Amino acid sequence: MDAIQQIADLFGLKAVAIGLLIFIPLERLFPLRRLQRIFRKGFFNDLSYAAFNGFVVNFVGGLIFVPIFSALALLVPDGVTTGVAGQQTWMQVLEIIVLTDLGVYAAHRTFHAVPILWRFHAIHHSVEEMDCLAAFHVHPVDQIVTKATALLPVFLLGFSGEAIALYSVIYMGHTMLVHSNTKIGFGR
Fold first, then answer.
1. Over the stretch 103-148, which tens digit does the pLDDT of each residue have?
2. Contacts of 51 (CB under 8 A, 6+ apart)
3. Domain span at residue 92?
């Protein structure tokens, strides 16, 4: 439960504020669209998505997923969870990145392929001017399903709270970066 609380704290408004303090200057220094204002069209709407979704996801996670994940965790042999948690933190973080990327990819492809799910996911693609805050422009159903799909194996396998917290910081930074109004290239 401690790891879940750490994630809830990391995905709260404090984390969004820290992300904005990092990415707004980057977007000013290396803009992709130079004329885009900081308080662009949809800025405050996306800020409200960040606040509302953070609350909803944490509430639903605490109410629904924690009991389900806890019950499913009883099916995983103790040797597996002990072995996973006993690894070096950096190795756990790398494994979490791989596992969650597979889960996010599967959920994302499903949201694109299934018409009823696309209605939820289309909200994310409706942003007219991109910046780091656009990462949070997501329907709560989209976010809940994606996070549950991505994080289920992480919690079942018994990764340490420290590794999950480090992954969460990396995930938040990566998500804000790929949606940011920056001209920072990483090649093909």
1. 999 999 999 999 999 999 999 999 999 999 999 999 999 999 999 9
2. 13, 16
3. 2-179
Our count of domains for the chain comes to 1
Is residue 145 domain-resident? yes
Strand partners for 149: none
CA distance 131 to 123: 15
Q: What does the DSSP 8-state code read for residue 137?
A: -
- Residues 9, 104: Cα–Cα separation, whole Å: 21
Instruction: Give mean pLDDT, residues 41-49.
Output: 89
Between CA 56 and CA 183 the distance in angstroms is 33
Question: What SS3 class is residue 182?
Answer: strand
The answer to whether the beta carbons of residues 20 and 132 sit under 8 Å apart is yes
Residue 184 lies in a domain: no
pLDDT higher than 70, residue 182: yes
Nearest alpha-carbon partner for 73 in 6, 153, 145, 146: 153
Which range has the worst mean pLDDT, 38-42, 161-165, 184-188? Answer: 184-188
What's the CA gap between 16 and 86, in Å, rounded? 31
